Each structure stands twice: as C-alpha cells, then as structure tokens.
Amino acid sequence: MGMLATKFTFSVAYSVIETLGSILPALIAAALVQLFVLNRFPKKWAALGLTVGILSMHFQGMSALSLYPAPSYSVYFLVISVLAAFMGSWVFLTVLYYGALQSTLNRALVRVRAGAILAILVCTVHYSAVYAMNILPETVCLTDAEVFPEHGLEYIVTASSFLIVLVAGGVSVLDSARIKHRIELLSLAERKAVTLANEITQSLRESEERYSLVVKLSTDALWDWDLTTGVLTVSSSRYKKSNQQYASGEQAFAEWAYFVHPEDRASTLEFLRKQGVEEWLEIRFVDTPDKSARWVRLSKGYVFREGRPVRQVGSLKDIDAYKKAELALQSALKAEKEVSALRARLVATASHEFRTPLTLIQSNAGLLRRMLAKGSDPEKSLKYCTRIENAVAQLVHVTETVLMLGPRTNSSQKGSVASVNLDNLTLEIVDDICSQGGYASRKVLVCLDGQGFNVAVDPFLLRQILSNIIENALKYSADSSAVKVYLIARMDEIKWVVVDKGIGIPAHSLSSLFQPFHRAPNVRELPGTGLGLALVKELVYSLGGVVSLDSEEGSGTTVIVRIPKRGA
Amino acid sequence: MQSDYILIVDDNPAVRETVSDVLELEGFDVHQASDGAQALALIRTNQYRLVFCDISMPEMTGLELLEQLQSSSTRPPIYMLSAMTERDTIATALSLGAAGYVTKPFSPEDLLEVLGKH
User: Fold this and answer.
1) Yes or no, beta carbons of B21 and A356 under 8 Å apart
2) How far is A364 from chain B (nearest CA, A)?
3) How buried is A340 (Cβ within 10 angstroms: 0-12 exposed, 13-18 middle, 19+ buried)?
4) Is the peptide bond before A357 cis (omega within 30 degrees of 0)?
C-alpha cells in the first residue's frame, strides 16, 4: 500500500515471483514471533529475525520493480532504517509478551498497542528505506507492465489488505477464547504463587515473632552458628546482646570466655568445636557483680545438608537453682552414706569390742571353777575376780559410749542446758579426775579465764568432753609430767586447751584418730577402747563446736575444744 | 621329742595373762608375745607344741604372721583366737595354713580341747 501511495515519474510494475517471494521472509518472521510468544524462542533472536524479515520483505519488494539504472542508497537513512527495524521489533515483542499476562480487557488494548507499534515499525522501515533511495530522472521500471499493470496491482493490494484485516480479525476472535483460557491459567498460577508467597512471608514473620518472644521471655541465650561461613549470631535477653554477630565462633568465644569459669573453659571450647558425643554440657558462668559462679547448661544441635553439618544451633539455660539443689542433695547423700557406713562399722567394731571383755569374764570364771575343783588359792582367786570386775567395767564403758555415739533424739541432743560458771565447772572436772585413785598424785595446772561469766551450756556434755580429754592427757603422759588446762572465754566462743608432754601420737594415726575404736599403735599396751575421741568429737559437734588436735610422737599432744558462746 | 611350750600372741595383756593362767594350770609352759613380729622371732628361735594367735594386732597381724610362716617347714600348728567372726576372715586364715579358728569369747575348756588334739 505504501509503494502504491508513492508516485514515481515512471510507470511501475512488479515481478510476480519476486513479489510473492517477499512474503516468505514475512512468514518466517511471523513464525519466530509466534514461537517467542509461546516461550520457545529467545527474545533477542526473535527480534533479529523480525528485523531481517521486515527488511527482506521491503528490499525484495523494491527488487520486484527491477529499476534501471539501479538506485544508489544514502547510508545514513539506510542505517536509520535498520536500527528502526530492530528497535521497533524489540518494543513490539516486549509489549506482546507482557500483554499475554494481562486480563481480557487489557489484552485487547495490548493487541491494539502491539499492532500500532508493528505498523509504525513497518512504515518507518519502508519510508526511511525509500527515502534512502536516490532515483535518477532517467530511471525506468524494467518489469513487464503487462504482468501487473499499475491499476491492476492497486486493486489486488487493496483487496489483499482488506482480506488480511478480515482474517486477522477472525483469527483474533477465534483465538481469544484460547488465549483467555491460557491467561486465566497464568493468572491462577500467578495468584497461587502470590498467595503462597504471602503465606510463606506470614509464616516467616510469625516464626520471627515467636523466636523473639522466646528469647525475650527466657533467661536463656540462643546461638546460630553458620559452619560454612563461620558467622555466629547470639541472641540473649539475659546478657543484653540481642542478635550480636561475630565473624567466627572462636571470636565470640574469646569474648564470652571471660564469663566462663576458668576450670570449664577448655571443656566448653571442645564442646562447641566438636560434633558428636556430647550434645549438652553443664558449666559455670561468673557474670554476677559478686563474682559468684552460676551453673548453666549448654545444649546444641546440628542442621545437616547432604550428610554434612552446616549450622550449629544451641541454647544456654540457667540451671543454677536446680544444679545447686542437686549438688546439695548429692552432698547430703554422701554425708548420709558416710554416716551409715560409720554406724555400720561402729556396730561391727562394737560387737568385736564386746567379745574381748566377754572372753576375759568367761575364761576367768572358768579358771575360778577349775581352781576351786583342784583346791582353793585365795590369791589367784582374787586375781581372777579382779579381771572379771575390770572386764565388766570395760563392758559397761563400751556400752555407754556406743549408746552416746549412736543416733540421739532431739530432746537428748538438747540435753539440759543450764546457766554454768565455766571457771567453776572446769575446776570441778579437774578436781573430780584428780580425786580418782589413779591420778591422785598427778599435777594438773589450770589457767582459768572464764571471766566469771555464766553461760548457757549442757554441763553433762561438757563434763564428758573435758573428762575424756584430760584423762587421755594424764593416761598417755609420765606420772612426773604435768598436764595444763587453759580456759579462754572470748566474745563469741569458749575455748579449752589441754596440753600434755606425753608419748604423743604417730603422724599416720592422726587422720583416723576421731574414728570409733581407732587406737594408735603406741598405746596398745595401755587399756582403752578407742572410743574416747570419737565421743568427744560427736559431743562437741552437738554443741555446735569443733575439736582439733595437734601432736608429735614422743613430744606430747595439744587438744583444743571450741564451742560458740551463748549468754545465760 | 614333743615340746611342752605354748606361745600365746595377743596385744591385750589381760587376755594373754588369762590364757597363760589357763594353760599353766594344766602344766604347760607358756611364752607370750604382744604382736606378730615378736611372735615370728620367738617361733624362729624356739620349738612350740602349739601357738594361739590373735588377728588384730599392731606391727604385724595374725594373718601376716601366717603368711610369713607359710614357707616354713618347721612351723608349729597355729590356732587363731579372735573376736573377728566374719566368714571371709576365717576362710583366709585357714587358707593361709591356720590349724583352727577359735572365736572370742572362749572358755578354758575350748582351749584344752584344742590342746587335746596336739
């Protein structure tokens, strides 16, 4: 139509073959556009194909004129024509592609828009190319005018154009249903994709909110360690390091190690670095102003990709109250076990200790009987009777002491507390001991500093304690050696110190000296049960005090008893 | 010729004296030792018809004494006299070569019955 609109100085006619041949590149270009719309051909190649198709159609059409002499071309306009062909093709394809995704109403507009662009494109190419042509005045058309006379061609082309418009309109109407369905599918897919994306975004937001809330409400810290990049994120409300990021786990540990108890640092680092055996670890944190250690539990887990750990996620939980209760329970259980073992040993040893005086009683009674059968010997009879009496006394002593060492009820533990003048009581105890037959000639030096006060104490228990210690001092020292007893009353405690220069105690026996029935090897020849100091320890403990002993074999022994002072 | 000497080993002097009195009343000569070490020295220098030996003693216990004498071909029969009544202790003593085990408390007749066997 464009060519027909152009008026030449000479009459024109078109070669039929070449004219029909110019339709071929146009069909190829249209096929490429269709393939592009169906997503089966890349845009840049479709644009190039359309460019080449339009240019071929134009120049082949021009060639169908068979102008003589052949026209020369202005390179400038030729380039403009080619550029216009390519850029127009690009814009046309772009509009066509996005138009396919639009709704029905928009789709019609897009078709109009694309059609307009294609029209402008073809016209621009045609007229810039025609304008580029330099036609001389003597130029003539060599094509046989009989084939396609000027007016005959006009009718054919006009008719063809109307036919094209009709066919295009028909195809468009017929195709609209298919395209509509396709667009609906695309819209549905798009809507589904958008809904899914929204759901995912919402879910992520909720997860993030939940995570933040958990961190905020708990006293814990959480960490997320990317093992491929080394980046570590720590979230903590307790340690006020919300979403703190570290370049590496080691860097984070270097900062946090300051709070980890020095004894737990190596195990903590190993726990964080190594995957496998231990999935939790209990350590101590020293993060309070008073530097007291708090127990925390580290737990960790791994995220795997293709069997390889890529993230380590963990938490730090404050278990101080639970752990301290557990340790206290363990300690109490251990103490209870020790007490039970001690009591079991006490019973076993007590039974052993009962058998020796019983042996003496039974054997000496047997001796008495045998001797009486053979004829009386008053001297020997007396000796056997004395042994029996001593053995009975020993049995009584062992029995009473074991009963005192055994579990006592609360009422007996409290005993009878009375207001006691310590100076007088100490002196009475020493006097009582020295008035006994065995120690009448012994010298006991007493230094009293009770300051004349009366204190609330159980005098019976105190008498048992001091008698045992002072009698031991006398028993295990030479008759010529003096025993010293000091009483020192302080603001908050009362202290007795008993010093002797006796045989002392071997160093290896000191640790087990307060255990029931333990007797040092250097006193085996002297009578005794090994219960005295065990009883002293138990009684001093029941008064809330402590007893300590310092001794050197051959040099003597010093025993110190301390009990808290309570006013009377 | 069989010796009439009997050795009593115990760290409690009252027990030693009492056992000595029982045996001497029956006409035996008695030696005394207060622990295993003393007893070992006496056994190596004297010939005894019988030894009565306590277990729990300082320096050397009765069981340690048995161990020391295990390889001796001339050791006398050793009877343990002990307040320890646990089966394990008795079994150990017998496996170490003790001729018998008398638990405390015992009567003079118990000792004389043992003497009647040797």
Assistant:
1) no
2) 7
3) exposed
4) no
Surface-to-core class of residue A426, CB atoms within 10 Å of its CB (0-12 exposed, 13-18 middle, 19+ buried): buried
B22 vs A356, A367, A374: nearest CB: A367
Two tokens at B35? 């622990």
Nearest CA to A435 among A474, A409, A397, A389?
A: A474
On the CB side of A340, CA atoms within 13 Å amount to: 6
- Asked whether A365 and B109 are in contact (CB, 8 A), the reply is no
Other C-beta atoms lying within 10 Å of the C-beta of residue A82: 17
Chain B nearest-CA residue for A371: B25
Q: Torsion over CA of A358, A360, A363 and A367, rounded to 10 degrees?
A: -140
The pair of structure tokens assigned to A411 is 């009422």
Cross-chain residue pair A352–B103, CB shorter than 8 Å:
no
Task: Indicate the pTM of the whole model.
Answer: 0.43
- Is the pLDDT reported for residue B42 higher than 90? yes
Query: Could you please report the per-residue DSSP string of A246-312?
Result: ES-HHHHHHHHGGGB-GGGHHHHHHHHH--SS-SEEEEEE--STT---EEEEEEEEEEEETTEEEEE
* Closest by Cα among A179, A193, A188, A190 to A99: A179
Phi first, then psi: give them for residue A389, nearest 5 degrees. Answer: -65, -45
Chain B interface disruption, residue of A353, A363, A524, most B CBs within 10 A: A363
* Nearest partner of A360 among A172, A527, A556, judged by Cα: A527
Considering only alpha carbons, which residue of chain B is nearest residue A521?
A: B58
Residue B107 contacts A, CB cutoff 8 Å:
yes
The structure tokens listed for B48 are 């005894």
Long-range CB contacts (within 8 A, 24+) of A421-424? A421/A450, A421/A452, A421/A453, A421/A454, A422/A448, A422/A450, A422/A453, A422/A454, A422/A455, A422/A457, A422/A487, A422/A489, A422/A494, A423/A448, A423/A450, A423/A452, A423/A487
pLDDT band at residue A208 under the 50/70/90 scheme: confident
Q: Closest to B18 (Cβ–Cβ): which among A355, A364, A521?
A: A364
pLDDT for the residue numbered A144: 66
Interface touch A391/B103, C-beta < 8 Å: no
Give A268's contacts (C-beta < 8 A, 6+ positions apart).
A253, A257, A260, A281, A283, A298
CA distance A37 to A349: 104
Q: In whole angstroms, what is the distance from residue B80 CA to residue B20 CA?
A: 15
Residues of B in contact with A359 (CB under 8 A): 15, 18, 83, 104-106
Confidence of residue A535 (pLDDT cuts 50, 70, 90): confident
Type and span of the H or E element at A321: helix A320-374
| Angstroms from A480 CA to nearest CA on chain B | 24
- Within a 10 A sphere around the Cβ of A349, how many other Cβ atoms? 19
- Displacement of CA A316 from its chain's centroid (Å): 4
Residue A565 banded pLDDT, cuts 50, 70, 90: confident
Question: Mind telling me how many Å the CA of B55 is from chain A's nearest CA?
Answer: 12
pLDDT of residue A411: 42
Kindly state the percentage of chain B with pLDDT values over 90: 62
Nearest-angstrom CA–CA distance, B111 and B19: 8
ipTM, two decimals, is: 0.89
Chain B contacts of A363, Cβ < 8 Å? 18-19, 22, 105-108
A246: closest CA among A233, A260, A265, A227?
A233
